[in-house]
Amino acid sequence: MFCKNTNTALFYSSIDKIPTKNWEILDCENNVYFNREFLKSIEKNHPEITFSYIILVDDNAFPIALSSIKIVNFYMNSIQNNFYFLKNLGKKLRILKDNKPLRLLISGNTFVSGEHGLFIKKNQNKQKVILELAKAINYFVSSNKELKNKIDAFLLKDFVNESLFITDELTTVGYNPFSVEPNMLLNIDENWQSFDDYLIAIKTKFRVKAKKAYAQSASITIKEITSANIEEKLTEMTALYKKVATNSNFNLGDFNLETYKDFKDKFGEQYILKAYYLQDKLVGFMSGIINNNSLDAHFVGIDYGLNRKYAIYQRMLYSYIEIAINKKLKTINFGRTASEIKSSVGAVPQDLTMYFRHKKNITNKILKLFLQRIQPTPFQQKFPFKKNSNKCKQVKN
C-alpha cells in the first residue's frame, strides 16, 4: 500500500525497501526482533498478512524509531475463556460478526508477546515518539482511501509496566488500555553451572516434581531440528502446533512453521528447535531464540493425548532451563499462557498492557468501558525456590 512520506515519518511496504543507511542509523539489529533477517522471514512466510514499516525521523530527517505494522483479519472464534464477554459485546455492537472478521492494524509482533513492535533510539523523548507513531499510523490509513474503508481498529501491543508512563500518552488520542496475560519470566542465577544447581535451589516438593517429570519422560528422545532435517518434520510439527494454538485465549494469527527453515538458515544455533520422540513418533517440539542475554521461548507443539503420561510439556520447560544455564544466559522469557505450570518451575509474571482504538468514536467510547473489565486469567502462583534464593521475587517493572 503506497503512502507518501511526511516530515516526521517514512513508510515502507517491505523490509527490502528500507535503505541500509536507515538500519545503520537506527542501530537496532542487535535486538533480534528488529533484525532485518528476522522480520523478512516473518514477512515472507505469511502472505495473508499485510506488512508495513514506519520509521520516525527527527527535525534533521535522521531515523529515531522503527515500528513494525501488520494488518490482519481478527476472527471472533479466536476469542476464548475470559474474553467471551468481549465476544458477546462485539456481536451486540456489530463489531464482530460470524461471517466477517475485524480488520485490525497492529503495531507489534503478532506471534511473540513482549515489546517487539516499536524500537526507539536512546536519548529520545519517548512520550513524543509514541504520539508521533499514533499520528503516523492515522495518516498511513487515512491517506489511502481503500485502506481507510477496510481498517476497523488499531492495536498497539505489548507494553510492560515500566513503559506505561510513556505509552499512556496514547489515551490522549483515543486509545484504550487493557491488561492481557502476563509474560512469565525466570531469572537464571549466575552461580548455576548446571541443571543440578537449579534443582538444589528449589524446595524439596518441586525437586521431587522435577525428578518425577524426568522419570516419566525417560523413554522420550530429544533430537535437534536442523536446516538439513526440518523439511521432513514440518507436517507433523504443524499438526502438533495447531493443537496448542487452538487452546490459546487470544490468537492474532496462525504461525507458519515454514518460517523455522529461514530462522535456522539465518540464525543457526541462535535459534533453538528440538523434537521430542516417543520411539519413532513425534510427540512434541519446542522452539525459541537467544536474544542477547535472554532465551525467548517461542511456539511449542504437544501431543496432548500423551502429555500427562509422559510429562512432555513439563520436560520442555526444564529443557529451556537447561539450555539457558548451559549457555550462561540471564533470563528465560517463557511467554504467556500456562502461567501456573510455568510458575511451578520458578517463572514470575510480568504484566503486559495493550492499547486499542476503534475507528468509530462512539463505538470506541463504549468499548473503553468494557476493556477496563478485561483481566488476565487468574492462576495460583507457585514459589518453588528456597527462601534464601533471589529467584523467587516477583518481577518489578
Can you characterise this structure?
By secondary structure, the chain is α+β, with helices and mostly antiparallel strands. The chain has two domains: 195 residues, Aminopeptidase (3-Layer(aba) Sandwich); 165 residues, Aminopeptidase (3-Layer(aba) Sandwich). The chain is 33% helix and 25% strand. It is built from 14 helices and 13 strands. Strands 1, 2, 3, 4, 5, 6, 7, 8, 9, 10, 11, 12 and 13 form a 13-stranded mixed beta sheet that branches. Helix 2 runs antiparallel to helix 10. The longest helix is centred in the middle third of the chain and has 17 residues. The two termini are 37 Å apart.
Features:
alpha+beta; Aminopeptidase; 13-stranded mixed sheet; Acyl_CoA_acyltransferase
| N-C termini distance | 37 Å
CATH-level-4 superfamily name of the largest domain? Gcn5-related N-acetyltransferase (GNAT)
Order of helices and strands: EHHEEHEEHHEHEHHEHHEEEHHEHEH
Q: What is the third-level CATH name, the topology of the largest domain?
A: Aminopeptidase
Which stretches are low in confidence, meaning pLDDT under 50 for 5 or more residues running?
Answer: 392-397
Strand proportion: 25-35%
Reading off the top of the CATH hierarchy, the class of the largest domain is best stated as: Alpha Beta
Structure summary, number of beta strands: 13
Structural class by helix and strand composition:
alpha+beta
Shape: globular
Q: Biggest sheet: strands, sense, closure?
A: 13 strands, mixed
- Arithmetic mean pLDDT: 91
Helix content: 25-40%
Helical region count?
14
